[in-house]
Structure formats: structure tokens, C-alpha cells
Specification:
This protein is α/β, with parallel strands linked by helices and 758 residues long. The chain has 4 domains: 59 residues, N-terminal domain of TfIIb, CATH 2.20.25; 261 residues, Rossmann fold (3-Layer(aba) Sandwich); 228 residues, Dimethylsulfoxide Reductase, domain 2 (3-Layer(aba) Sandwich); 129 residues, Beta Barrel (Barwin-like endoglucanases), CATH 2.40.40.20. The chain contains 27 helices and 29 strands. It has a 7-stranded mixed β-sheet, with helices on one face. Helix 8 packs across helix 12 and helix 8 runs parallel beside helix 14. The radius of gyration is 25 Å and the shape is globular. The model has no long low-confidence stretch (mean pLDDT 97). The structure holds ligand MGD (2 copies), iron/sulfur cluster and molybdenum atom (MO).
Length: 758
């Protein structure tokens, strides 16, 4: 006898937020997932799913996935009960904090934290509990440049304008490959389908990428740019728009823009003819493109990883939006638009239309060794190793990682792995014993993705529609397994000195209490002036704790919120539970000037911090023109950064961790398809299998990141069989975009040589 139950939940594996239909069979022996497919009724994804979505079952069932904490005893990780793990953390972390202070502890927060409701709501408590400024994360190997540029231009680090894919007539895409990645800083389930729909209605797609990616293959035009030169290319477009008198601002935007004259002056020296040798894109193409962007009924420029993780990441990200403004496409349907997230956020709170603005270096803190300033509350991860090994008495002695694998994901990884060996203590919240967590003294596993509640706190603020969707747990927690938020809160409490028996639930009650009290005294809140006890009683009436209760509060007090009775039918957790396929609050709407939070209340087209970088850009022309061979990365639809290579169905088939080499380069360097080549950079070298392909520009080779498994002390049996090599052995910790602290992961100077006998 078995019962069948169906759950609808959002896939937490990438930014696309696809709806899944999960079928569970319930028998006397327990619950088992029998099928996962796309939820056809999902209000946003309409049934779309990629090959990773259905593997939540394999992830849950993976025998290598940790279900109990691990503690390192005599160099070997052994499984222990939770109480023992907490004792270990309390003893050793407590001692380090007591002896050396809070700044002796560093944190690294990884990417899946942005996809975990617990981490999104409780990492903050953890950081506060630890009280250290030495915070690092995957943001500085990813999107930080876009956030910094958006911050200076529009006022907050989340004021990122997203391409209005469903209504645009023209997408100029740089350094993104949504056919593999499914999109980033642009949440749009079935991104490829939306691009195809655009082309079907007569629109045009131009892809700028040194590789002929899947997306480039599907495009009307592929422009094989030289890596690292996107900022120059975009500056040449700006130059053309201005000198050919194509700037096209409507009255509303014209009245909001500051800095047009400065942009004119800054772009004067960047004629398309001047930058062509550096970008590899001829001037007539650039000029024609600038004209086409203006001539199209609507158009949008969108840049991602290939533009952000470069020497001019912030400058390129800035220029993307300068072009969007100048072509008249900022904040209008079909252009680049601001979201109005259902949970609210920095662009919906506080005074409408202006704010404190954005700056870096807040609090005056700097890294000890190279003196990097704070950016959005953290330091460049490329500086983590030296903060452990070279900061003398001020060195980092303990590390807390949550959902991160920096040993495979961040630059000069051999150096980082060695630095980890010098730590006095390391604790990781993670579900695998991998290349990073093998260094941890204690590993604390979260429950599996199917055992948790979900809401995309981090991703809906970048979605092309304003939507809300809450997912209930599909499978129950294992016996004794704390939820991920309880693990994070407990760590926070231990760091504050409350000991191994501290109660996360009581701490959560206190947190919600202070949230509510803050809300009722905030004149901008829809619950301003209400009785806090009434609100707390309403929240508690459901019996919910943890993330679900906090989300309910955020939904109710957000821009569409039910506001605890004052806006009947408004957003609340009950509403979402009654709508398991999600609630769609519609396409994006123009939000300016309301969404601005700059001090001036204007769109800052030419922030001084960004203008100051222009001379560096001008100087780079010669160097970029003369580069011989550089390395770039790539993603594959069936990978997810470093951590899903233990799922057999995703890794089977042709080896994917190969070095793409153009035929001309293959003969130049004497390497051949299927042979092994040694790739060497300033900091390291790896031996990779060569794949000769025309789908890459000569002078550029490509290796995906996230590989290099099979290291002793890890427990990833499937991944070890297809280990691949770690491309971040080659990336250079000294190569950093100075404006955002973000690493250069694309455009790494390398040499390639055959390995004898291969
Ligand atoms: N299947 C899958 N999906 C993922 C991920 C994954 O690992 N696998 N990771 C997720 C994460 S964390 C993120 S941040 C997103 C990233 O999403 P995307 O930004 O779409 O990332 P990629 O697919 O790596 O595409 C980047 C492209 O930039 C190109 N490129 C490299 N250097 C340059 C350059 O200098 N200029 C230009 N114009 N192009 C360049 C590369 O050839 C590559 O095709 O994907 C997310 N989705
Ligand atoms: N050369 C090069 N390097 C890159 C990139 C590139 O394009 N080229 N891309 C960069 C980008 S965009 C990113 S985002 C980073 C990613 O860098 P990281 O975030 O450091 O690495 P991931 O590979 O995402 O590893 C995630 C870790 O989280 C664990 N995990 C998975 N789900 C959960 C969960 O729900 N809870 C917890 N607690 N743990 C979980 C996994 O087991 C794994 O250890 O890599 C960056 N590195
Ligand atoms: S595209 Fe992303 S969200 Fe959608 S099923 Fe695949 S991994 Fe999940
Ligand atoms: Mo990322």
C-alpha cells in the first residue's frame, strides 16, 4: 500500500527559479521521491526544467552526502553526534576568540547560500555573532563589479537593472551564456526560450564572447572579442552614440540624468578605430551596432561573468548601463528595468527617490596585507590566503565557511589550500567532504534540498517579473538533524559565548521580536504605529518558526503585503501556501525616480569613482592589443560550479574538463585533439586534455572551473572518477579589479605546451 503525494517547489540549483513537480510515494517504510518534472502550472517557468532540476532526488540519495557532523581526529574525519560536534566548535572557536579576538576569525560564504532560504536569512546572524570584519565570499569571484557600478549609479548595491527579455527587440549580450548557465543577475526561467521568442517576433540577438558558445551559435551575430576588452568596446559604443548625435533621452530620463558632459569628455579618446586593435572588433561593426541599438524600437545591453570577472569588471558593468541610458532604454519596457520585489528591499524602503548613496571602504577597515578596502561588507577573496599566512600577529587563525568551495572556486587555489593547513581551527557548514571542507576540523551538514523550505530571497530581486513562490519541505528532516538555519544560529550563539547548549529557537524568537518592534516604529512601514504584541501574536498563531515565520513577516510588510489585515488579499505566507504554483505580480514597471537611492536623487551617469578609472582603461589599449595567449572559463549545462560532479547522471558521457584550443593555436603550440597539454600561468600549471575546436577565437584557450576532484581526504566517489583539473590553479590572486576587489578569472596570460608522449 502506498499513498502518492505531489509537491510543487522551486528548484534551488541556479538563478532561474524553475517550478518543479515532485511526486512522493508514502509507504510504511517512509517517503520516497518517485518523480521530478517541470511544473507546468508554475506562474513563471510554465514547465521548463533543465537536466539538473530532476537531480534533487539523486542529491538527496547520494551516499556521499553528509548526514551527520564530522570531526577531524588524528587527521581523519569521523562521524559524530551533533552534541559532540557543538562541544568541539564551542571549545576551540571560543578559545581562539578569547585569546586573539574576533578579528582572528574569517568567514567565507559560498554561492549556494544565495539559493538557501536559511542562509539568506540567517548568515547575517552568523556574521553578527562572530563580529569579525574579515568577511569573504564568492561575490568577489562573481557579480560584485555589477553591484558596485549599480551602487554608484543608482544608489544601492542591489539597484541592478535587468533586461526586460519578454518585451525587448534587441539584446546585446556580453560575456554570458544562458544556454549553459540559464542566466544570472537576470532571473528568467527558460532564458533560452525567451531569447528564441524574441527572435521569433523579429528581434535580434548579438553575442559578444571570445568563444562561439551555445548562445553565440543561436545568435544573429557573434562578435569574438578579445578577453578583458569589453569596457573598451562599450566605451567605443558610448563614443559613437555621443559623436554621431544618437543620444536619445526622453524628457523624464533627461531630467534625472547627471553627468552627461563628463561622459562625453571621458569617452572622447575611445573612438571605435582607437580600441579596435585591443577588442578585435572592427570599428565599422562597433559603429553599426551603436546605431542599431538606437534604431531598434527597444534594446538592452546585458553583461555577465565574462564582463565582471576581468580587470575592468566594474568599469564594463558601469558602461553597460551608460549605453542603456544613452539609447533611451533604461527604465522602460523592453529595456533595462528595476524590479519591485515582493519582499521589498533597499529600493522600496526608506525615502522614495533618494538616499544615502553608495560607497566602499565603510568603517575604515582594510585587509592587513595588501590593504584592500571593504566593499559591501566584505574583502576580496583573493586576499584570503595572505591574511592567514602573512599578517603576523593580526593573522586569521580560524575560518568559518558556509556553502563554499573556495579551493576550487577562487584564484591561486594551491596557495589557498596551503594556507588552510596553517589555520588553528576551521568549521564548515556543508553537505560534502570536498576539496575545501577536507581542511575543516568540524563539518556541519545541512539537510538536503528536498528537506527544506524555500523562497528565493536573493534571486527574485533580479527577476524579469515580480513573482513570489514559497516551497514547503518535501521530505522530513532526519532524526536529530537540525535545519540549516538552526545550525547557523547555533554557530552565531556559540561565537557570542552562549555555549554549545544555546537554543537557536529562543534566539529566533528574539530576532523576530526586534524585527517587529523596528517595523512598528518605522514611518515607512505599512505596520507603522501598530501594537507589536498584536503583530507577534498574528505571526505566532500559525505556529511557524524560523525562516517561514520571517518570510511571512517580510511578505506582509513588503510592497504588496497584507500588512497583518490592513491590506486584505495582499502578500502573506498563507497566500503563497494557497498558491503552490506561485503568485505573479506582473511584468516590470518603470520605477524611476522612486527606485533611486543616490544622494542627488539623480541617475549618476559619471560617478567620480568610475571616471577615475578611465585613464587606466585608456592605458590598457596597448597591452591588450599585444597579448599573445589568454585563458577564459566556460560553463556546462550539466555542471553547477564545483559541487554537482558527484551526481552520476550529470557527469556521465564525454569528458567535459577539456582545454578548448583553436586549430591555428593547436598547430602553433604543437598540441593535438585528445592529447595532453601543460597550461602555465604566472602562478601555476595544470595538465589538461586538449579539445581542438573552431568555436573559440585564436589566441584564447578555455578551461571550465570547478574541477580538480579526487584529492586525498575528500569523499566524492563519483567525482573522483572524472576528476578533471582545477582551472583556478592558474588564476592569479594579484589580478584584481581595483574598484570592486573582484578577481580576474577571464583573460589570464598563459602558455600552452605539449606533454611529451601524450
Ligand atoms: N549549468 C550551470 N549553470 C550555472 C552555473 C554553472 O556552473 N553551471 N553557475 C551559476 C553561477 S554561480 C553563475 S554566476 C552564472 C554565470 O552565468 P553566465 O555569466 O552566463 O556564465 P557562463 O556560462 O560562464 O558565460 C560566460 C561567458 O563569458 C565568456 N567570456 C570569457 N571571457 C570573456 C570576456 O573577456 N569578454 C566577453 N564578452 N566574454 C567572455 C565565456 O566564454 C562564457 O561563454 O551561471 C549560473 N548557472
Ligand atoms: N575560474 C573561474 N572560477 C570561478 C568562476 C569562473 O567562472 N571561473 N565562477 C565563480 C562563481 S560565479 C562562483 S558563484 C563561485 C562559486 O564558488 P563557491 O560558492 O565557493 O563554490 P561552489 O562550487 O558553488 O561550492 C558550493 C559548496 O556549497 C556546498 N553546498 C551546496 N548546497 C549547499 C547548501 O544548501 N547548504 C550548504 N551549507 N552547503 C551547500 C557544496 O557542497 C560546496 O561545497 O565560483 C567562482 N569561480
Ligand atoms: S534551469 Fe536552474 S532552476 Fe531551472 S531546473 Fe535547471 S538548475 Fe533548476
Ligand atoms: Mo556565480
Amino acid at each position: 500500500m502506498s499513498d502518492i503525494q505531489t509537491f510543487f517547489r522551486t528548484c534551488p540549483l541556479c538563478e532561474a527559479t524553475c517550478g518543479l513537480e515532485v511526486t512522493v510515494s508514502i509507504t510504511a517504510k517512509g517517503r520516497e521521491v518517485t518523480r521530478i518534472r517541470g511544473d507546468r502550472d508554475d506562474v513563471f517557468s510554465h514547465g521548463f526544467i533543465c537536466p539538473k532540476g530532476s537531480t534533487l532526488k539523486q542529491l538527496h540519495d547520494d551516499p556521499d552526502r553528509l548526514r551527520k557532523p564530522l570531526v577531524k581526529r588524528n587527521g581523519v574525519h569521523v562521524e559524530v553526534e551533533w552534541a559532540e560536534a557543538w562541544d568541539e566548535v564551542a571549545g576551540r572557536l571560543g578559545e581562539i576568540i578569547e585569546q586573539h579576538g574576533r578579528e582572528s576569525v574569517a568567514t567565507y560564504l559560498g554561492n549556494p547560500g544565495a539559493h538557501s532560504l536559511s542562509a539568506m536569512l540567517y548568515n547575517r546572524s552568523l556574521l553578527q555573532g562572530l563580529g569579525t570584519r574579515r568577511r569573504f565570499s564568492a561575490s568577489t569571484v562573481d557579480q560584485m563589479p555589477k553591484q558596485v557600478a549599480a551602487g554608484y549609479m543608482f544608489g544601492t548595491g542591489v539597484s541592478v537593472a535587468v533586461p526586460d527579455l519578454d518585451r525587448t527587440d534587441f539584446v546585446l549580450m556580453l560575456g554570458a551564456n544562458p544556454y549553459a548557465s540559464n542566466g544570472s543577475l537576470c532571473t528568467a526561467p527558460d532564458f533560452p526560450g525567451r531569447l528564441e521568442a524574441m527572435r521569433a517576433r523579429g528581434g535580434r540577438l548579438v553575442v559578444v564572447d571570445p568563444r562561439r558558445s551555445r548562445t553565440a551559435e543561436e545568435a544573429d551575430t557573434w562578435l569574438p572579442i578579445r578577453p578583458g576588452s569589453d569596457a573598451l568596446f562599450l566605451m567605443a559604443i558610448v563614443h559613437t552614440l555621443i559623436t554621431e548625435d544618437l543620444v536619445n533621452l526622453d524628457e523624464r530620463i533627461a531630467g534625472l540624468v547627471a553627468g552627461l558632459d563628463e561622459i562625453r569628455a571621458a569617452s572622447a579618446n575611445f573612438a571605435p578605430e582607437v580600441v579596435a586593435s585591443a577588442t578585435g572588433i572592427d570599428a565599422s561593426t562597433t559603429r553599426a551596432l551603436a546605431r542599431d541599438l538606437v534604431a531598434a524600437p527597444t534594446s538592452v545591453v546585458y553583461g555577465r561573468i565574462g564582463t565582471t570577472t576581468t580587470e575592468f569588471g566594474t568599469t564594463a558593468s558601469w558602461l553597460v548601463d551608460v549605453v542603456n541610458v544613452l539609447t533611451g532604454n533604461l527604465d522602460r519596457p523592453g529595456g533595462a528595468m528595476f524590479t519591485k520585489p515582493v519582499l521589498g528591499g533597499p529600493t522600496t524602503r526608506g525615502k522614495s527617490g533618494s538616499g544615502a548613496g553608495f560607497r566602499i571602504g565603510r568603517g575604515g577597515g582594510r585587509t592587513q596585507v595588501r590593504g584592500y578596502p571593504e566593499v559591501m561588507g566584505e574583502y576580496p577573496v583573493a586576499a584570503l590566503a595572505e591574511e592567514i599566512t602573512e599578517a603576523g600577529e593580526q593573522r586569521v587563525r580560524a575560518l568559518v565557511t558556509v556553502a563554499g568551495n573556495p579551493v576550487l572556486s577562487t584564484p591561486h587555489s594551491d596557495q589557498l589550500a596551503k594556507a588552510f593547513e596553517q589555520l588553528d581551527f576551521m568549521v564548515s557548514v556543508d553537505m560534502y567532504l570536498n576539496e575545501t571542507t577536507r581542511h575543516a576540523d568540524v563539518v556541519l551538514p545541512p539537510p538536503s534540498q528536498l528537506q527544506r523550505e524555500h523562497y528565493d530571497v536573493a534571486l527574485y530581486p533580479f527577476a524579469i517579473r515580480n513573482v513570489a513562490n514559497f516551497s514547503e519541505r518535501v521530505l522530513p528532516l532526519d532524526d536529530g538533524q537540525p535545519d540549516e538555519w538552526e545550525v547557523l544560529l547555533k554557530l552565531a550563539l556559540i561565537a557570542q559565548g552562549f555555549g554549545p547548549d544555546a537554543d537557536p529557537i529562543a534566539a529566533d524568537d528574539a530576532t523576530i521580536d526586534s524585527l517587529v518592534r523596528h517595523g512598528v516604529s518605522d514611518s515607512g512601514s505599512p505596520i507603522h504605529g501598530r501594537d507589536p504584541e498584536e503583530i507577534i501574536a498574528a505571526l505566532d498563531a500559525s505556529g511557524r518558526k524560523g525562516p517561514a515565520r520571517t518570510i511571512d513577516y517580510m511578505l506582509q510588510t513588503g510592497p504588496y503585503g497584507a500588512a497583518f489585515g490592513s491590506n486584505p488579499g495582499g502578500a502573506s505566507l498563507d497566500l503563497l501556501l494557497a498558491n503552490p504554483h506561485g503568485v505573479d505580480y506582473g511584468a516590470l514597471e518603470p520605477r524611476l525616480p522612486d527606485a533611486l537611492r543616490t544622494k542627488s536623487g539623480r541617475i549618476e551617469l559619471a560617478p567620480p569613482e568610475l571616471l577615475a578609472d578611465v585613464p587606466r582603461l585608456r592605458k590598457a589599449i596597448d597591452e591588450l592589443s599585444n597579448r599573445d595567449l589568454v585563458l577564459v572559463g566556460r560553463r556546462h549545462l550539466r555542471s553547477n560550479n564545483s559541487w554537482m560532479h558527484n551526481i552520476e547522471v550529470l557527469v556521465k558521457g564525454k569528458a567535459r574538463c577539456t582545454l578548448h584550443v583553436h586549430p591555428e593555436d593547436a598547430s602553433r603550440f604543437g598540441v593535438s585533439d585528445g592529447g595532453v597539454a601543460r597550461v602555465t600561468s604566472r602562478v601555476g600549471s595544470v595538465d589538461a586534455v586538449v579539445e581542438v575546436t573552431e568555436a573559440i577565437r585564436p589566441g584564447v584557450v578555455s578551461l571550465p572551473h570547478g574541477w580538480g576532484h579526487g584529492v586525498p581526504g575528500t569523499r566524492l566517489r563519483v567525482a573522483a572518477e572524472r576528476a578533471g583539473v582545477n582551472s583556478n590553479v592558474l588564476t592569479d590572486h594579484e589580478a584584481i579589479d581595483p574598484l570592486s576587489g573582484t578577481s580576474v578569472l577571464n583573460g589570464i596570460p598563459v602558455t600552452v605546451a605539449p606533454i611529451a608522449g601524450s
